[in-house]
Known about the structure:
Layout (H helix, E strand, L loop, with lengths): L6 E6 L2 E6 L1 E7 L9 H15 L2 E8 L4 E5 L2 E6 L5 H11 L3 E5 L3 H10 L4 E5 L8 H9 L5 E4 L2 H11 L4 E2 L19 E5 L7 H10 L4 E5 L6 E3 L3 E4 L1 H12 L9 H5 L12 E4 L5 H5 L1 E6 L9 H8 L4 E4 L4 H5 L4 E3 L5 H11 L2 H20 L1 H20 L1
Parallel strand pairs: 3-4, 3-7, 4-6, 7-8, 8-9, 9-10, 11-12, 11-16, 12-15, 16-17, 17-18
Antiparallel strand pairs: 1-2, 5-6, 13-14
Amino acid sequence: MPASGPTEIVNIGGAESRVTTVKLTYVSASNPVEDIAGGEVTVGNWFESFLDAGIEVDLLTWGDEDATTDRGDLHVRTFADLRPEEEIERTMRRRGSDVVLTQAGWSDLALDLAEQLDVPSVLSVAGNPELHDERAAETMDRRTSPTEIVANSRFTQQWITEQWARDSVLVYPHIDFDFYTVDADERGDCISMVNPVHVKGGALFKDLAEYFPDEQFLAKAGWYMCREDPPTDMSWDMDWFRIFARTYHGFTDPSEDLMLYSLTPREARFRPDSNVTYVPEYEILETYARTSILLVPSQYFEAFGRVVLEAMWNGIPVIASDRGGIPEAAGGAAMLVDDYDDVRAWKEKIERMQSPDVYEAFARRGRERAERYRSKQDERTETLVETIRDAVAAGRD
């Protein structure tokens, strides 16, 4: 069901190229034009690059109702069903597709449909690899594997090789540094973290606040895409977790999946009279403006850790767990904690960072790291566009 359009001149990375217009269908339960989780924000930025490169994009995603809208050149179709196989298939047949790109929720559905419709596929792996347990690996083995796999870090690449015995293309997350820029004259006084759920170190963060009663701590909420009605109702939306239980662990009936309960996060609770300010609102810039030190105390394997670079860009020193893809994001410019589950180890690092000379050194090194990362973003975009086109070419062979 190819849908390729005419040949046209496009500009990729500052150089004009003659390419054939490609029709890409992005399938995911997480909406990259509305959700603000790291992986979804990255995909939203990819869309702009795709359109600039002559790649037409259809977005098929989960929503409150069945609806069709156009956002500029982006065609968006939302489905209220938790598992809309037939609806997505009908949409793809009607509109045509040269390649399917998928990530996170519904990725199993997307890969199955790509096989049925004889369309090449690209799987983006950007979340915590622990979601892909042995059952998920077995499911991948049983299905036709994606034409190409994109990994968001070398850590993720290694996991893909070990679990799926597949090569992958490294494309680090795209970060809109202009958007995340705080006024240079603003320098906060809070020790902060983003998303204080337990797996990201929320309980440890709470303990640290008790260790430093004279310091102000700030906890910025996260994972809004799986909340009921943020920021008013911050309770967890269980339908979202049902989608992920089905995607990663293969259970049609989520009540059969014990993993569902381990996937449902627990969030640290802070007393109103404590020295911790909990911020449920979306706005991240105000958080960075109020932050003097950012803590990233993750207790599980983060695939990357984009908040590290967002903070560094603003001259905020970072103390982070030496775990998963976080050291890769930090690029040698963060203070890493080997004993990431030991609150005393974090206390020692904070005390060291409070030395003015140490603080300024890490602030400077962090900014330099973020600048180097930003300088290579066009190259990463070119790599991704080439990967999409390689998948299309493979499908035509």
